Amino acid sequence: MAYKIAIASTDGVEINAHFGSTETFLIVLIDDDGSFQQLGRTKPATVLLHQAAEHPALGQDTSSCGSGSSCKSQGVGCGGSHDETKINEKIVQILDCRCLLCKKVGAGVKKQLEKKSIAVFEVDYKIEAALKKIIDYYRKIDQHISLRKA
Predict the structure, then answer these.
(1) Residue 51 and residue 4: Cα distance in Å, rounded?
(2) What pTM does this model have?
């Protein structure tokens, strides 16, 4: 089954951007045979608070800390300076992706993405090398092949 991968990259060569600093994501389509093709970049989404209901995949908990409300430094490691609207705009851009490849992502955002069945991989690779590893990983998962080395 074909699937998409979102990549946080500034240059289209390396995975070199943090989720929070990325305005758009490079989207790659992985075909059934393991080949891949770049589909281009996402368009910046504009999600106003009153439109959040149109995106049921965002769910009720939109706090990047996972606390369910603006934490204002109550979360572990949280500076309370999240712009929830911008975070949700970024999440909406990649809702149809199986996973996200980025250099860094906050724990709360990672939790939000995983609730939406988007796996997060924090990696520091060139895109092509990372894609080969991820494609192999998902091939094994999808075919119920052990990830352990024989």
Answers:
(1) 25
(2) 0.78
